[in-house]
Amino acid sequence: MSDYCDLAPGHPFHGPYHDLEYGFPVADDDALFERLALEINQAGLSWLTVLKKREAFRLAFDGFTIDRVASYGETESRRLLDNVGIIRNRLKIEAVIHNAGVIQTLRARHGDFRGWLDHHHPLSHGDWVRLFKRTFKFTGPEITGEFLMSTGYLPGAHRDDCPVQARILAAAPPWTRS
């Protein structure tokens, strides 16, 4: 993603994400869930739009606490659809809520969301896409690929000459152990 390595440094939204998060391994389930939810909400929009709304998303989705979001019903769905601070798309909101419940099921079988990801790693991009489509809602090739790249399960977040790449390699994301 060479363009991102050129665009992001110094940018008020892209810069911190590029330098501190994008491509690094993520261990916390709620942080993994947040990343999946943000990728789902990015579909059809710019990543900058999502980053600008990130704090509003965190507030609206109770910090992306999986168990809280999984318990959302019609009242919470309506509240989210009325929240002008986030992307108000019914299909995306329903997918995020549904996927929180899916992650609860995955945790019951694999200990945590990361355990489920590690259980299936390594897979090719195409195999990951098929697995995500069978498992989650609203996860096509782009969403799945970006989620996995952003959390260290697929390579390609940074160019080899990007200064962040050395820090990512030092953090030993799963793709380096394939």
Automatic annotation (TrEMBL):
<dbReference type="InterPro" id="IPR011257">
    <property type="entry name" value="DNA_glycosylase"/>
</dbReference>
<dbReference type="InterPro" id="IPR005019">
    <property type="entry name" value="Adenine_glyco"/>
</dbReference>
<dbReference type="InterPro" id="IPR052891">
    <property type="entry name" value="DNA-3mA_glycosylase"/>
</dbReference>
<keyword id="KW-0862">Zinc</keyword>
<dbReference type="GO" id="GO:0006284">
    <property type="term" value="P:base-excision repair"/>
</dbReference>
<dbReference type="GO" id="GO:0046872">
    <property type="term" value="F:metal ion binding"/>
</dbReference>
<dbReference type="GO" id="GO:0008725">
    <property type="term" value="F:DNA-3-methyladenine glycosylase activity"/>
</dbReference>
<keyword id="KW-0479">Metal-binding</keyword>
<feature type="binding site">
    <location>
        <position position="5"/>
    </location>
    <ligand>
        <name>Zn(2+)</name>
    </ligand>
</feature>
<feature type="binding site">
    <location>
        <position position="18"/>
    </location>
    <ligand>
        <name>Zn(2+)</name>
    </ligand>
</feature>
<dbReference type="Pfam" id="PF03352">
    <property type="entry name" value="Adenine_glyco"/>
</dbReference>
<protein>
    <submittedName>
        <fullName>DNA-3-methyladenine glycosylase I</fullName>
    </submittedName>
</protein>
